[in-house]
Amino acid sequence: MTTPYHVLVVEDDPDVAEFVKLVLIKRAGMVVQMANNANLAFELLQQHEFDALITDIEMPGASGLDLVARVRQLRPQLPIVVMTAHASVDYAVTALRHAADEFLTKPIASAYLAARMTALAERGRADRIAAAGQVILAIGAHPDDVEIGVGGLLAAHRAGGDSIVILTMSRGDRGGDPNDRQHESLASADLLDARLFLEDLVDTKIGPADPTVSIIERVVAEVAPSIVYTHSSHDRHQDHRAVHQATTVATRRVPTVACYQSPSATVDYQPNRFVPIDGFTDAKMALLACFASQSDVRAYLEPDFVLATARYWSRFGGGRSCEPLEVIRDTSGIGQVGTPSRRVAAPLPGLV
Q1: pLDDT band, residue 176 (cuts 50/70/90)
Q2: What is the CATH number of domain 133-351?
Q3: CA distance 220 to 119
Q4: Higher pLDDT, 76 or 9
Q5: What mean pLDDT do residues 29-55 have?
Q6: pLDDT 10s digits, 243-264
Q7: Stretch 299-322: mean pLDDT, rounded?
Q8: Which of the residues 28, 73, 158, 210 has the least number of beta carbons within 10 Å of its own beta carbon?
Q9: What CA–CA distance (Å, rounded) separates 193 from 186?
């Protein structure tokens, strides 16, 4: 399910504003924000992300064309439609010279309005996502799972301009106070500037079907990731195996899915990609240091253990430190960190 497009409508006539709003909501299924003047509209554009903008030309104070000129400086790629009751060549030429994408004259047929705004909003969202880099979703059964498995790689993605999302299926109450572990998860996500989804499934009793699958599907639909990292099936912990199974079902349309190594991984864990994290080991250690409630009771969180593990895997992937992955699907390119103009200086992963 695609997240509804978010559109800003700028119109000072209440009747026209209500018509446009209803058409976009009822016919196009959009989320609509309203503004009755250009200044309010510009404030909203500074505070929120929109997929498209539609504005009247003639309004009290600043005109719609004034608004378009300001928006082009703030959001160069945002699709803009201008509308007016005065159908004239001069108005259309002026609007297009102000870099509007389309000029509409009132009255506007509802079907045409819905179709054009849908097409423009689709383009606007695609451009915005491309400009922002990839969305990376890391899924773990418990707090600290993803940081142990791919903490260095997530830090590299973030440095390259990618957006990081962490989905943790339980609060890990079998391993400590769930409130402490929640705060630790939030602190780690904050270091990564990541969005955190912290669910409350029962620790040690997570299942491979619903509600686990539905939770992952909901997050995937909301954030639209291009790469997903999750647990391997080769793991002694039942929660890890269950999350792996649920993820493979719920992410079937995600271009790239790969499995990281957990401390409970078995000897059957067979990575086929080794991603160098040189330059990001300190960032990984800072993430793991957030989980203070675990560091005294989990030997695998000891710094020398973590660093030695990364050093070992570098024998296959180059550099001095690597994180291993079992790649089960890859069409977008693990290791291609950030948009082309913002690649970090991390070597591309090697294949064996």
Answers
A1: confident
A2: 3.40.50.10320
A3: 23
A4: 9
A5: 93
A6: 999 999 999 999 999 999 999 9
A7: 92
A8: 73
A9: 10
Mean pLDDT of 72-87: 85
For 212, how many CA atoms within 13 A lie in the half-sphere containing its CB?
25
In eight-state DSSP terms, residue 24 is: I
Which single residue is written with the structure tokens 């064309």?
A: 65
Query: Could you tell me which of 149, 166, 263 has the C-alpha nearest to residue 216?
Result: 166
The answer to whether the CB of 235 falls within 8 A of the CB of 142 is: no
6-130, superfamily in CATH? Response regulator (3.40.50.2300)
Beta strand 273-276 pairing with 256-260: unpaired
The residue among 314 and 103 whose pLDDT is bigger is: 314
Domains 6-130 and 133-351 in one fold: yes
What are the Cα distances from residue 142, in Å, to 60, 215, 268?
55, 15, 22
Strands of 322-330's sheet in order across: 195-201, 163-170, 135-140, 227-230, 256-260, 322-330, 273-276, 350-351
Question: Given the structure tokens 């080794």, which residue do they identify?
Answer: 274
Q: What is the length of the chain? A: 352
